[in-house]
Amino acid sequence: MKCVLRVYYLPKVIFKDYNISIDVAIGETIYDAARRARIDLGGFCGGRGLCGKCKVKVFGNVSKVTEIEQKILGNEAGAVRLACQTKALGNVEVLMVYRGFLKTSILGYEPSITLNPAVRSIRIVLERPTLNNYFSTVEALYKALGYKVKISLSALRKLADRLKEIEVIIYDYGDIKEILDICSKGPLYGLAIDVGTTKIAMYVVNLLNGETIIAESIENPQIVYGADVVSRISYAMEHDTEELHRAVIESINRFLEEISRSRNVELDKIYDVVFVGNSVMHHLFLGINPLKIGIAPYEEVIRESYMIKARDLGLKVSKEAYIYAPPLVGGFIGSDSLVGAYILGLGLKKGIYMFLDIGTNTEVYLAKNDTIYVTSTASGPAFEGGHIKYGMKAIEGAIEKVIIDEETLEPEISVIGNVKPRGITGSGIIDAIAEMLKAGIINYTGRFKIKEHPRIRRGHEGYEYILVFKNESGIGEDIVITQKDVREIQRAKAAIQAAYRILSRRLRIKREDLEKIYIAGSFGFYLRPENAIVIGLLPEIPLDRIELVGNTAGSGARSLLKNKELRKDIEKMVERINYIELALDKEFHKIFADSMYFPSRKLEDYPMTIKKIWRAFEKKR
User: Fold this and answer.
1) What is the pLDDT of residues 146-204, one digit of tens each?
2) Residue in 195, 222, 210, 215 with CA at minimum distance from that of residue 259
3) Do the strands 189-195 and 270-277 form a parallel or antiparallel pair, or are they unpaired?
4) Which residues are within 8 A (CB) of 230 and not within 5 positions of it... i.e. 6 or more apart?
5) In whole angstroms, how large is the CA radius of gyration of the chain?
6) How far apart are alpha carbons 62 and 91 in whole angstroms?
7) Contact residues for 408 (Cβ-Cβ < 8 A; gap 6+)
8) Residue 7: alpha-carbon gap to chain centroid
């Protein structure tokens, strides 16, 4: 009897842009293959066929174009595919329609900090025992220090070397006082990590002088599982947390390995780590399933500050290093916005201040003297280009600034990289809609008012304004602002406006009482406050009372690295914060609906502040 051996080969998907090949099961989507390969194809909806952003070109044996692709891509369907709808039936080569480097700000306001880190280096001389005066090396160490202290095993082993003078690395914070290492004189580093929904910002700080020697960011690899925290909670519930946790840790480790090679940073000299993030990112970084946060009453597994050894997470710093996670506030509000509010002095100084950390999930803090109220609102990914027809991240080819002539309705645009435009960023869409409102293209309800003009036409999603004609664009088609895009921005800005209006009622303050509005976050860094006021995203106050403070989460994390006493302050501060759940406010839905409207174009309907803003615009033109 003949025995026939059959060998089955799994098809491969090759991502040409990254030179990465991955085995796939027949019928697996290109999007899922990319997700396993930790490649972001640009989607916002987590591969559910809703956003139309994961455009790719495919070469090989794949499934037929779906109805979803026909609807979203129109005439483009076939030449271009949606990765989440395209299944591999054999070997496939994939090219991204467009990729580029994210333009983002990871630096921000940073207060002057007295250097007092949790880790310090002490040089001591060890006394040698004699036959008449016998003692161990550890006892000689205690005597030189003047007190007893816990010693890590790796440090203990180094004491076996016959050294008279040693450099002792001591960690001293809270209940922990431990010798982490015995080494020769050299650098002493700390690492601050801001785990954001979209990006991970990382900073290496020299703890001997407080200088930040490296400040860089990478995209959060979890974005392939969904653009927002709700998508990632859903993925964790349906699959597992380990995959999301491992994706973040591996990306951070790759960054650390890169700076070790290119910047000569000795990773084993990083002895202290502070990481911040919203509640979901906090849990996923630690490998904790965030499913409770996604269901009312939005319970965290742990809210207080937490410390863990770096080796327990597999972080490639000193194995004895400690990781400090500041406390969370409540619900989706995490330590990232908390440390930002702290370094800006909310609740610590007299006056009335507002702090907005704008993103997919926006945190709103309102402080009146020492009383602090805070809430979070799901503003959605519109401010980052999500759910906008031609929305895109702030990469080369993205329109970031728009001015529309009120008489001719002709636009003037600014494009990242000075290349042909391919889409529009969050700050660009705010500009465009504010300009459309000022030019009278749309009215205060958001509906198109002008319908007869070469740049205005009726499309699949209602009327639309042509921002760039196809012969001038980098994608071979018109770039437009649709009626649906306007509605997306209305919903996003209404969520934020409703949040600060509700907090204002709780504290019984009016907008004119605000002494300062601080706006944080990468989106906020490029926001033009005057246009944010025009569409109602910000309260109508003088522009000199609005301050763009950049990435305060990263600044706050670095501050906690440089001075350990600030950690105690922030742990006390969180106890004084009043967390408000918007869904429980009886007026929320009414206020949200009212906040959907844009401010009226008629000057007589505006308070004095907005009149001045309009007149400034008119004078500028």
Assistant:
1) 889 999 998 889 888 877 788 899 999 988 999 999 986 779 999 999 998 888 999 99
2) 215
3) parallel
4) 294, 378
5) 27
6) 8
7) none
8) 46
CA dist., res. 594 & res. 446, Å (int): 13
pTM: 0.80
Percentage of the chain beyond pLDDT 90 is 56
Determine how β-strand 212-219 pairs with β-strand 199-206.
antiparallel
362 touches 492 (CB < 8 A): no
Give the distance, in angstroms, between the CA of residue 305 and the centroid of all CA atoms in the same chain.
21
pLDDT digits (tens, 9 = 90+) for 19-74: 788 888 899 999 888 878 777 776 666 677 777 778 889 999 999 999 888 888 87
The 10s digit of each residue's pLDDT in 80-136 is: 899 999 999 999 999 877 655 455 556 778 888 999 999 999 988 888 888 888 889
Token digits for 100?
A: 């580029």
Residue 586: CB atoms within 10 A of its CB come to: 7
Contact 83, 94 (CB under 8 A): yes
Indicate the SS3 state at residue 189: strand
Length of the chain: 621
Q: Are 55 and 72 in contact (CB under 8 A)?
A: no
- Tokens for 537? 């995203």
- Taken in order 490, 494, 495, 496, the sign of the CA dihedral is positive
Helix (H, G, I), strand (E, B) or coil at 429: helix
